Amino acid sequence: MWWLLAMVAHPEVQRRAQAELDSVVGRECLPTFADAPHLPYVRAIVKEVLRWRPAIERGMPHKTAADDWYERMFIPKGAACIANTWQCNHDRAVFGDDAEDFKPERHLDATGGGLLPGPEKRMGRDM
What CA–CA distance (Å, rounded) separates 2 from 47? Predict the structure, then answer.
């Protein structure tokens, strides 16, 4: 749903993605996973949609393995900790003053290629 909203609200993004798809894949077939490395802007849109409007705003709960301290706060062993992914994805120190804006270009380098590796971790590859 958020992908659709982003494309309707940002037609220039949709046009650029369509142009990239047409130039890499053509108009007669669907893209495959083999095409992904050649579609940096489309990949940037996917990353930005997941950052801008994450499907789950809170991470999975984890329990602490031992007593710990974090910024003068005591966290006892066995305490449930849940990451605030919304805050992480909208941190102005990481994403700039426009962190609330939908901006796929933030995931591209100066040449228009994808920023890999990025601040995210890819399940199965980096973990």
Answer: 12
pLDDT tens track for 20-74:
999 999 999 999 999 999 999 999 999 999 999 988 878 889 999 999 999 999 9
Cα gap 55→72, rounded to integer Å: 32
Sign for the CA dihedral angle at 111, 112, 116, 118 comes to: positive
CA 44 to chain centre: 8
Q: Which of 30, 25, 3 lies closest to 14 in space, CA to CA?
A: 3
In sequence order, what E strands does the chain have? 62-63, 68-70, 73-75, 80-81
Contact between 104 and 44 (Cβ < 8 Å):
yes
Q: Is 15 helix (H, G, I), strand (E, B) or coil?
A: helix
Q: Please tell me whether the overall predicted TM-score, pTM, comes out greater than 0.85 for this model.
A: no
3-state secondary structure of 73: strand
Q: Please report how many Cα atoms fall inside a 13 Å half-sphere around the Cα of residue 79, on the Cβ side.
A: 13
State whether the Cα torsion 119-122-126-127 is positive or negative.
positive
- Distance, CA of 108 to CA of 32 (rounded, Å): 21
